Amino acid sequence: MFYRFAKGVVHFILAIIGGRFQVQNKEKIIEGPYVVVSTHTSWIEIIYLGFALYPTPIHYMAKQELFKGKMLNWLMTHLNAFPVNRSNPGPSAIKAPIRLLRQGKVVGIFPSGTRKQTNLHLKRGAVTIAYKGNVPMLPAVYDGPKNFKEILKRKPIIIRFGDAIQVHDTEQEQKLVLEQKSEELMKTFETLQAEIEATKKK
């Protein structure tokens, strides 16, 4: 209930002060459970991805520092976020999202950094969770403002979805699967960004 209420309030405010919001390839959104993966550089992308997938709620993996204090812990929990120690991830970094996937939920993972980074470990965590949870990944790319000041400039906002990536479509050993699917995920992000740029020129 709170997730729906918060989405409605924030969406209303951003619709007034922000730019035009467009969801591209919405037909590629699959039925849950799945892991939706979108690299990001700011909190804004997470909000708009929630808008794009609504009414399906996303259960977000978030750094544990955001849960400090009773009020923050209550807020993050009611926004369907769960804490992960990113500097020293333990078993819960895998167990918590897998448990949600087995309950039929959608888990959102947002590797930090830009889409063009070459270090695959940022993407491999998402692939590992999808592999262990036996679910596909839904790639998404955000193009738009990176901070509140840019929102006020009413820059256009685009989220583009790619084809679902099946993690269990091979009989290869796990290590090789994780490496190959991480590469595929990175290439998909680059392709989606190029497609967004092409649509902006039309």
UniProtKB/TrEMBL annotation:
Segments traversing the membrane: none
Record GO terms (molecular function): 1-acylglycerol-3-phosphate O-acyltransferase activity
InterPro entries reported in the protein's UniProt record: Plipid/glycerol_acylTrfase
GO biological process, one term: phosphatidic acid biosynthetic process
One Pfam family recorded for the sequence: Acyltransferase
CDD domains xref list: LPLAT_AGPAT-like
Stored SMART domains: PlsC
Residues covered by the Phospholipid/glycerol acyltransferase domain: 34-145
Coiled-coil residue windows: 175-202
Domain of life, per lineage: Bacteria
Alphabetically ordered keywords of this record: Acyltransferase, Coiled coil, Transferase
UniProt-listed SUPFAM superfamilies: Glycerol-3-phosphate (1)-acyltransferase
UniProt-recorded name of the protein: Acyl-phosphate glycerol 3-phosphate acyltransferase
The organism of origin for this protein: Listeria kieliensis
